[in-house]
Amino acid sequence: MILLLAAVPAETERLRHQMHPVEEIRRTVFTLFAGRIGTQQVGLLHGGVGKVNTAIALTALLERVDCRMVLQLGCGGAYPDSGLEVGDLALASEEIYGDEGSHSPTGFLDMQDLSLPTALIGNRLFYNRYPLREPLIQRVEQRLTPWLQSQGIRLQSGPFVTVSCCSGLTEGAQALRDRTGGICESMEGAAAAQICAQRGLPFLEIRGISNLTVDRDFSRWNLPLAVGRAQDAVLQLLDHWHELEL
Predict the structure, then answer these.
(1) How many whole angstroms from its chain centre is CA 134?
(2) Per-residue pLDDT tens digits for 39-85
(3) How many domains is the chain partitioned into structurally?
């Protein structure tokens, strides 16, 4: 099963309409929509907003359901100077905990600065950053390129930043961008990436850009466009999944 993971139902409405047949599996911690999209057996999970909800729901599900990959989707905010605009698509090359650490008189100290790893996987300590599988990301980019060109949609890959408090001021967003090198931010991705890394599961994350992380002005956002394009990209990948799992 390919697990499709999003925070809220508004990010998956189009995908759920494509699932036939659909079985709704309700548990205390999660509800899984299981079915097929095209030729692929998929599960769809709404993990909830934020790192904690995502970690709880995804861990509970993976204890009970056998998945061969987790594909996270949804909307994201693009950082200033990232080159992304509203309606573009972003593909994660790594996930970064953007606000795990400590402020100090000399600047922000991340978990490595504090000598506090977030995970030990094999013999490797992980702190704020969870790199994703580069060959898989390259295959995704190659597979999506013809569709992107036909639709006039731009895709950019790069680091994603996960925060508990979203950027709503240009100055703060630019500081995060400078510190992390991230191209966009969300509230869930790093938690899912960490769990998948601990379990040895391939993980992908694709987000539609709903807004720029400048001084918050909701009139300049386009959530329907962002979540629609992210779902369309996932449908394209599912249609050609045999080209990704090499």
Answers:
(1) 15
(2) 999 999 999 999 999 999 999 999 999 999 999 999 999 998 999 99
(3) 1
